[in-house]
Design a protein that fits this description.
- The longest helix is centred in the N-terminal third of the chain and has 10 residues, at about 35-45.
- This protein has helices at about 10, 35-45, 45-55, 60-65, and strands at about 20-25, 30, 65-75, 80-85, 90-95, 105-110, 115.
- The chain is α+β, with helices and mostly antiparallel strands.
- The chain has a 7-stranded mixed β-sheet.
- It has one domain (about 20-120): Roll (Nuclear Transport Factor 2, Chain: A).
- About 25% of the residues lie in helices and about 30% in strands.
- A hairpin with a 7-residue loop joins strand 1 (about 20-25) and strand 2.
- The protein is globular.
- Helix 2 (about 35-45) crosses helix 3.
């Protein structure tokens, strides 16, 4: 996809299911949906899918959550905070991202049943 395409939050609501699942390249136990792939392709954000997928087998507190809500909040200085919560607002993981060119101020992704997906695809 060309870099001329810009990710807009309004584009994400078009994803209400997935026609295809894509296997993560590093953690082969994890898949992601059409919507998550669209975010990664359009925003150059495969790193975000990597952050979610790669930590799963290494962090017992995260792996213990059957349903995870991942939020990326981009700050005005282009740093960001990535959090994972249990779906009830209880944060189980936080990571500071020193720099990102992610185009949205924030995005939320779900992780359940070893699949990364947009909330509208749940």
């Amino acid at each position: 996809m060309s870099k001329e395409t810009t990710l807009r939050a309004s584009d994400l609501s078009q994803f209400t299911g997935t026609e295809q699942w894509y296997q993560h390249g590093i953690n082969r136990a994890v898949s992601f949906t059409d919507g998550a792939k669209y975010v990664a392709d359009t925003a150059g954000a495969y790193w975000l899918l990597d952050e979610i997928a790669i930590i799963q087998p290494y962090n017992k507190q995260i792996a213990g959550e059957a349903f995870q809500v991942w939020k990326l909040l981009v700050h005005t200085d282009q740093s960001a905070t990535l959090t994972c919560d249990d779906g009830n607002g209880n944060i189980v993981y936080t990571k500071q991202i020193p720099f990102t060119d992610f185009p949205l101020k924030e995005i939320k992704l779900y992780f359940t049943d070893n699949v990364i997906l947009l909330p509208s695809e749940y």
